[in-house]
Amino acid sequence: MPQQEEINRARIELDLLLRGFQVSRMLRLVADLGIADYINPDDNLSLSDLAADCGVQPQPLLRILRALAAFAIFAIAPDGSVSHTPRSRLLRTDASNSMHHAARYWTAEGPWKAWDKVDVALTGEMIPHEAAWGMSRFDYLQANPGEARLFDAMMAHFPDDRHTAIAAAYDFSGARLIADIGGGDGTTLHHILTRFPTPSGLLFEREDVIRSIPHDKLLGGRISLVGGSFFESIPTGADIYMLTRVLHNWPDADCLRVLRACRSAMKPDALLLLGEQILEPDPADGRPTDYLLDVQMMVMFGSARTRTESEFTSLLANSGFVMRRIVPTRSPVSLVEAVPA
Predict the structure, then answer these.
(1) CB proximity list for 100: less than 8 A, separation 6 or greater
(2) 2 partner at 20 to 30 Å CA-CA among 25, 170, 248, 282?
(3) Region(s) of the chain under CATH 1.10.10.10
(4) Where in the chain is the domain with CATH 3.40.50.150?
(5) Residues of the chain with pLDDT > 70: what percent?
(6) Pick the catalytic residue: 101, 129, 163, 248?
(7) What pLDDT score was predicted for residue 213?
(8) What is the overall mean pLDDT for the chain?
(9) Is the pLDDT of residue 37 over 70?
(10) Are the C-beta atoms of 101 and 150 separated by less than 8 Å?
(11) 41-48 mean pLDDT
(12) What's phi and psi for 267, nearest 5 deg?
């Protein structure tokens, strides 16, 4: 039987988990206000000056910051001045791999309301996001461009650092043209081409995403942009086709449509790379964030999910590919390498 001390510790830990939504919501508040950017990385700022900068009242701000400081997010001196901790520095927009955008996104209105409807997923009655908003996630993002651009920014600065990790883990030097299918704002492709000077890149995305990409992200013309739907057709002629964190957004039937469209576009000697988190069947061996991502996909898209290695093998076999190997990266995202069967 567990000892009383162990039971008490478990109770405290569980209590903090139960209140996690409160911490997430406060993090979004301070990120929306840009508080981390007002405080210099190695300096402090008086509470009154910080409140004035943000246009809010000092005392309510103090109460929010005290609560976050209890989690080592910001530090408050006895004189009331506010300074950074290693965690709060990550909320600065100029931080390497900034978590500012993630803090704003996870409790943004779209996901926040969808998670409130998570119950409907258990009956198969509806997709939680559709129960909350009356439309699919992608329709919602098209109707709410502000949140769509926030989502793009969050993905570009995702805390797993997958963009640089993918570029560092795989040798892209032999490719002439790399096609990033569903590649968001092209951040992964940008990192790859910066590291490998020989290939050119093609970013294929929805028209609304393509229109939002500034020209200064195109590496002086090395990246070309093509808009369209990967369910209909995919540009031909690339040596490597990449789908980075795309398939986990879709159920099996839609994944097969995307993969078969890739297969139709590919030359016999082209390669397919899937950048995905590989789910461990036993949670004791996996990362908690992998399982949170899996449920996030259920909330947003229903049958979409994070998949195991055997599930990827099956998807590839049923769409005309053979899995060759899985290349780990220093991030949670691995590269599943496949070739046309």
Answers:
(1) 31, 36, 90, 91, 92, 93, 157
(2) 282
(3) 4-94
(4) 155-340
(5) 99
(6) 248
(7) 87
(8) 94
(9) yes
(10) yes
(11) 94
(12) -75, 160
Closest CA to 137 of 305, 301, 293: 301
Q: For this structure, is 248 an active site residue?
A: yes
Strand order through the sheet with 82-83:
44-45, 82-83, 75-76
Residue pLDDT, tens place only, 70-93: 999 999 999 989 999 999 999 999
Burial class from Cβ neighbours inside 10 Å (0-12, 13-18, 19+) for residue 188 reads buried
State the Cα–Cα distance between residues 135 and 116, nearest whole angstrom. Answer: 15
> Hey, which CATH number is domain 155-340, 3.30.70.20, 3.40.50.150, 3.30.70.980, 3.40.50.10540?
3.40.50.150
Q: Is the pLDDT of residue 1 over 80?
A: no
CB 261 within 8 A of CB 268: no
136: phi then psi, degrees, rounded to nearest 5? -70, 165
Q: List, for residues 94-151, the tens digit of each pLDDT value.
A: 998 899 999 999 999 999 999 999 999 999 889 999 999 999 998 999 999 999 999 8
Q: Which CATH architecture has domain 4-94?
A: Orthogonal Bundle (1.10)
